[in-house]
Write a structure and sequence with these properties.
Number of helices: 14
Family: Belongs to the protein kinase superfamily. TKL Ser/Thr protein kinase family. TGFB receptor subfamily.
Protein name: Serine/threonine-protein kinase receptor
GO molecular function: ATP binding; metal ion binding; transforming growth factor beta receptor activity, type II
Number of strands: 24
Shape: globular
CATH class of the largest domain: Mainly Alpha
Distance between the termini: 63 Å
CATH topology of the largest domain: Transferase(Phosphotransferase), domain 1
Catalytic activity: L-threonyl-[receptor-protein] + ATP = O-phospho-L-threonyl-[receptor-protein] + ADP + H(+); L-seryl-[receptor-protein] + ATP = O-phospho-L-seryl-[receptor-protein] + ADP + H(+)
Bound molecules: adenine
GO cellular component, one term: membrane raft
Length: 620
């Protein structure tokens, strides 16, 4: 939980006490007053670096002045940074560390710890542990760091080399507990319960059950893999399973026509060897990270050193969670789509002073859509390319199917805006910045969805997001909020299209509200006054633009259920482009266009585009 400090001058404080079984207190405090008899000295720091204080040196305390800076606490940082420069040094783990807290988990499939505190373990030998307990007064989950050389509740951990936390029922000194341990950063945040095929039973029974369950499973897996293989071949779907540098090179060299940044992978580089990348200039800055144009070296030839241009998103150490979220979203191979930024690989980079997290993706010379629209007026045909590709990108993100019909986890972007959309060489768009995105996994509980909170950029937030009243019972609600944001972006594109007549300078939606509007100002405008960006009557002079505006209005409806789906918007753009071609052909052959405005009202199709209303009537 985060809260505003009540009095000005207060700073964020964390106190970690080992004496009572490891507790972390987090609170606001005025540094002019002592706390536990200690005067804070470090409260001007931007991050919370633990120092041992107190009469007997028994309290680890830190303070800092950035928002929520006491959420991550750093132990003994100077020595850690010095040592981490040494290759071979074992870095201390980041683990969830909430000790005991209530859990809604009922031990089926996987559960989130719901622990909001991430701590750096005190000792490099410590790993992450979670213990789940079924209790009549309510289930609980403990999360903490622990040295596996020592028993915990009389249990010696055996699974601490695992990358994920897989629960096993073990007999401890105080009875049975479900316990798991693992060695990846924050791996104890999600706990996995065993499937009915590996129940908590005596070993001999377990072995026979495993045989009974695993043999059919293996046969099933072989059938599925073969089917998948044939299916991939028939679909001619280029896959991006990148596992080593030579593969990455081969894939990047495959030319994406004129775009210099053709990368074709949506997979993780599991190779520990880092790519030979040289950062060039900074091209963007987001909430969590900075984006650089970079050179991916590909050897040298007589003509000199060869390289491929890529984009590198650099997250500082503190933004590990945003990097992890975006990396997890990208690592789903089914996300690969021409209107989603091509992902190459994710890396952890250690430097002498700190650790950084990188995401390496395709580079798009034209930059983001907001900058593009500020610099360019677009034609009607270009508006169709920009709008259609945006809708197709969002539709793919939201879809539970790949274009080949395979299964895919739908994803909500949750921060769609023109600065999170890139413009490719052919003026089609691709979505980027998945730091706040949410996988709409059907196993997510209402609690888990509710915990994901009110996120995004206030200017682009749908009314139900501004009011924190999303219907958590239905995952479609998250897609509907994206469609609202997409409508604002479509409006931005249309406002810069020369088909509307007099094109003004680029302005963001709701530009009159404020430069960086907060949620409260947006609520006044979007909910109290029911305002939306202005669509002047003159825009309807062009029948295609008129149709786009109708679509925009159906997408920013106050009622989320009444909004169109992204797929429907994509289909409308396809119809517009087809009608455009038809009307061009018919005008060159002096034929009469077939769609009339009254026809359009009856159906969900769109009127003949690419014509002014005058031209359209004239042709009729
Ligand atoms: N800005 C943010 N991401 C970018 C990318 N991949 N290419 C170009 N500019 C960007």
């Amino acid at each position: 939980m985060a809260s505003y400090c009540g009095n000005s001058g207060e700073v964020c404080v964390s106190v970690w006490e080992k004496s009572e079984g490891n507790t972390i207190d987090t609170f606001c405090h005025n540094p002019e007053n002592p706390i536990h008899g200690i005067m804070l000295k470090d409260y001007n720091n931007s991050r919370c670096e633990m120092g041992r204080e107190g009469r007997n040196g028994e309290i680890d305390i830190c303070s800092c002045s950035e928002d929520e800076c006491n959420d991550i606490v750093y132990f003994n940082t100077p020595s850690l940074s010095k040592l981490s420069a040494n290759t071979g040094f074992k870095l201390r783990k980041l683990c969830k560390f909430c000790d005991e807290q209530p859990s809604t988990c009922n031990s089926t499939s996987s559960c989130l710890s719901n622990c909001s505190i991430t701590a750096i373990c005190e000792d490099p030998s410590e790993i992450c542990v979670s213990i789940w307990r079924e209790k009549s007064e309510g289930n609980t989950i403990d999360t903490f760091c622990h040295n596996p050389e020592n028993p915990i509740h009389g249990i010696m951990l055996k699974d601490y080399n695992n990358s994920r936390c897989e629960m096993r029922r073990r007999e401890g000194t105080n009875g049975e507990v479900d316990i798991c341990s693992c060695s990846e950063d924050e791996c104890n945040d999600i706990v996995y319960f065993t499937t009915p095929c590996s129940p908590r039973v005596e070993t001999s029974l377990a072995v026979s059950l495993a045989v009974v369950c695993l043999v059919p499973l293996l046969v099933f897996a072989v059938v599925i893999v073969s089917l998948f293989y044939f299916y991939q071949v028939c679909c001619q779907h280029k896959k991006g399973g990148v596992h080593d540098r030579s593969e990455i090179r081969a894939i990047i060299t495959e030319d994406d026509r004129s775009d210099s940044s053709s990368t074709h992978a949506n997979s993780l580089n599991h190779n520990t060897e880092l790519l030979p990348i040289e950062l060039d200039m900074q091209v963007g800055k987001g909430r969590f990270a900075e984006v650089y144009k970079a050179k991916l070296k590909q050897g040298s030839s007589a003509a000199g050193e060869q390289f491929q241009t890529v984009a590198v998103k650099v997250f500082p150490y503190e933004e590990h969670l945003s990097w992890k979220n975006e990396k997890d979203i990208f690592s789903d191979a089914e996300l690969r789509h021409e209107n989603i930024l091509h992902f190459l690989t994710a890396e952890e980079r250690k430097s002498p002073v700190s650790k950084q997290y990188w995401l390496i993706t395709a580079y798009h010379e034209q930059g983001n859509l907001q900058d593009y629209l500020s610099r360019h007026v677009v034609s009607w045909a270009e508006l169709c390319v920009l709008g259609g590709s945006l809708a197709r990108g969002v539709a793919h993100l939201h879809s539970d199917r790949t274009p080949c019909g395979g299964q895919k986890v739908p994803i909500a972007h949750r921060d769609l805006k023109s600065s999170n959309i890139l413009v490719k060489h052919d003026l089609s768009c691709c979505l980027c910045d998945f730091g706040l995105s949410l996988r709409l996994d059907s196993s997510l509980s209402v609690d888990e969805l509710a915990n994901s909170g009110q996120v995004g950029t206030a200017r682009y937030m749908a009314p139900e997001v501004l009011e924190s009243r999303i219907n958590l019972e239905n995952i479609e609600s998250f897609k509907q909020t994206d469609v609202y944001s997409m409508a604002l972006v479509l409006w931005e594109m249309t406002s810069r299209c020369d088909a509307i007549g007099d094109v003004k300078e680029y302005e963001p939606p709701f530009h009159k509200v404020q430069e960086h509007p907060c949620v409260e100002s947006m609520k006044d405008s979007v909910i109290r006054d029911r305002e939306r960006p202005d669509i002047p009557n003159s825009w309807a002079n062009h029948l295609g633009v008129q149709s786009v505006c109708k679509t925009i209005e159906e997408c920013w409806d106050h009622d989320p259920e009444a909004r169109l789906t992204a797929l429907c918007v994509a289909e409308r753009f396809i119809q517009l482009e087809q009608l455009d071609k038809l009307s061009q052909r018919s005008s060159s052959q002096e034929k009469i266009p077939q769609t009339s405005v009254s026809d359009e009202k009856k159906s969900t199709t769109v009127p003949s585009a690419g014509l002014t209303e005058k031209q359209h009537h004239h042709q009729h």
